[in-house]
Write a structure and sequence with these properties.
Distance between the termini: 53 Å
Shape: globular
Number of helices: 3
Number of strands: 26
Helix content: 10-25%
Radius of gyration: 25 Å
Largest sheet: 4 strands, antiparallel
Order of helices and strands: HEEEEEEEEEEEEEEEEEEEEEEEEEEHH
Structural class: mainly beta
Length: about 375
Amino acid sequence: MRNAVDNNQSQATSVRVMSITALPTVILAIALVPGLGSEPASVFAGVTVPPGFRATLIDPTVASNSFIVAGTPARGFNADVYLTLPSAQQIVSVDIGASEQPFASFAGLIRSGPGLGPFWPTIDAIGNYGGDMFVDDDKPGTNDAIWRVSPAGTATPFSVNASGAWDNDALAFDTVGVFGGDLFLVDGASASLYRFQPDGSKVQFATGIPDTSGGMAFSASGALAAGAYIVNAPQMRIYFVGANHVEGASSTIFTNLNVAATSLRVAPAGAFTYAGLYAAVPSQGQIVRVGSGGSNDGAFVAGLPGSSMDCAFSADGTRLWIRAGTELWLVECAGAAGDFNGDCAVNATDLAILLGAWGGAGGDLNDDGITNAADLGILLGAWTG
């Protein structure tokens, strides 16, 4: 009789264990039913972003010809974003919820005069150039210059083109180290990409990059091939200079984008997990995604205003700043409950994290100290797929 009772208890225990063990599989099957992750895009004052993100209008009255760079606290640039004001020969800083604050003045410094600089702010994130911000001025036929700006806002010349042959189309640091963290300039006059050293000397690094080329972005690894990507709006193309490029050789065409983009970015590791390029397309009011194979993968942000546009990611990859016309926008995670890994989506990855914490506190979403069915319901209610 004792054995019979023991056997019955053992069978009952096995049934309970099997039921609990099977629970994650059942939940996962329910969660992955087609249509569960088909929530519509989010719309904020006419600007559309994917589910899990939100868009905020930070400032409606910025200069329509300004360029932007996100702050880099590790280098002392602590503001959220910096904007160039070419007409006023200034750079201003902007924090979330705050108005513009003067940061650097180029009055009496920029040789090309009001309205022609500073442009293309970029920060030496790796630190080979003193960790400063760099900008250029631009007027073909004059002594164009590249300027360095300290975290305190002091501007000094970095490199002056004595021949007057530069036509500064874009300036950017290799922030990922694929080319040693050096500074690069697209020169429309010679259809070339120049590589600068910390002492201000330069070499013609690549040719075959047409005049009026715009933004430049760098990739170090992953699905997107390592190298430099340079967008040209009139030709609607993105050009590529690979990590193993031979100095002085021609660039190659990465893709015929078929839209006129003016700014190009690669997202740092963070909330923006798309493994490709982000391109600003003013004529469509969009930030579009460009795949690793060169495909136009559609709009990430839509409904933006203005005929000109620039964008920049924060150093930690949690924010995308967009200057569209005279408006400054911020796109970031909506902070949905259940987004455990911070990728702005609530999906199977987060579900697996919650189930892995089942019975403990690691997946607790309602602050009752335990991960259970109540937390599962919250996660599924925020599901974006």
